[in-house]
Specification:
Distance between the termini: 15 Å
Oligomer: single chain
Helix content: 40-55%
Number of helices: 12
Strand content: under 5%
Length: 306
């Protein structure tokens, strides 16, 4: 079992504080320093639009300034963790209005991004086709299942949608899946059930384990590629048991620690095929996001030398 040295931990933290976006700097300071919720809220405010939704490259692989359900779900991941803060609560209220407005009744959910995404630099998988959908939309639960979790969490502020009906629809969709094609869809469901453990039952738990077993990559040789990683499914020791062995989690932690001992940041395992002039900026932004995520994993499993 490996532990991240204090030297490497501080180097990774300093990388974020020097090279990452203001948002990741604020989150890093809050988690591992003396930063405040206020700094996170201020940084997130730069990504929120007049309609309440989020854009402006918050999800760094598409640079659409306008709002999208996908970018809004990313914002809610952060805002929901500090929703006791009055300003965070106000931002949440505004984004809920946007999500009600952008609900697609035919889909009974949300399309990840609007067609305008095509007008700005983006990774090819975010391209919206002539039928109005992107490749992301092939899997209904990403981001709809996660968004429904936020609607349920803040149900008192939702006036235009039947939240209970959407929760039932979301769970029905999950249970209908025989073949799991998207780890991101499973991540969305895991976030839903993290918010709402009372919605979990034995059948749902078994289905989630089935999905994870189909998707997770356990071979260390493959982890340098863009694959679903063990810690993405179980980011903390208290996360839902999804059938990944403690040995697999320990091995993945060892691997991440080895990476951070070699260099103070985690590089994305993907790249854009177009907009090569913008990709270097997006790549650096992702390095801040991924390095912070890695430090959170390592810290939550107590793998930093004390």
């Amino acid at each position: 079992m490996r532990y991240l040295s204090i030297t490497a931990f501080e180097a990774a933290k300093n990388y974020i504080l020097t090279n990452a976006r203001d948002l990741e700097q604020a989150r890093c300071s809050y988690l591992f320093g003396r930063g405040t919720e206020q700094e996170i809220i201020k940084a997130l405010g730069n990504y929120q639009n007049q309609d309440g939704g989020f854009g402006h490259g918050l999800e760094a692989d598409f640079r659409l300034p306008g709002s999208s359900p996908m970018a809004s779900s990313v914002a809610l991941q952060m805002l929901s963790s500090i929703d006791h803060n009055p300003e965070a609560k106000e931002m949440i209220s505004e984004v809920l209005k946007y999500l009600e407005q952008s609900f697609n009744r035919e889909r009974q959910g949300w399309l990840a991004v609007p067609p305008e995404v095509n007008l700005y630099p983006h990774a090819f998988w975010w391209t919206v086709h002539e039928n109005g959908t992107s490749w992301i939309d092939d899997n209904w639960g990403n981001p709809s299942a996660e968004i429904i979790g936020y609607l349920l969490a803040y149900k008192d502020e939702v006036s235009k949608l039947n939240v209970d009906q959407l929760v039932s629809l979301s769970i029905k969709h999950l249970l209908s899946l025989d073949s799991f094609e998207s780890e991101h869809e499973v991540f969305c469901y895991l976030r839903f059930f993290r918010m709402h453990p009372s919605c979990m039952n034995q059948e749902i738990h078994a289905k989630l384990k089935e999905g994870v077993s189909q998707l997770v990559t356990l071979n260390q040789e493959d982890w340098k590629n863009y694959v679903p990683l063990p810690l993405q499914f179980k980011p903390t020791p208290n996360s839902l048991d999804v059938g990944i062995s403690s040995n697999a989690i320990a091995g993945h932690l060892d691997y991440i620690i080895e990476c951070l001992e070699a260099q103070p940041y985690i590089e994305p395992a993907w790249k854009w095929e177009t907009s090569n002039d913008v990709w270097p900026q997006a790549k650096q932004e992702w390095q801040g996001v991924l390095t912070l995520e890695a430090l959170q994993w390592i810290s939550s499993y107590d793998r930093v030398v004390s």
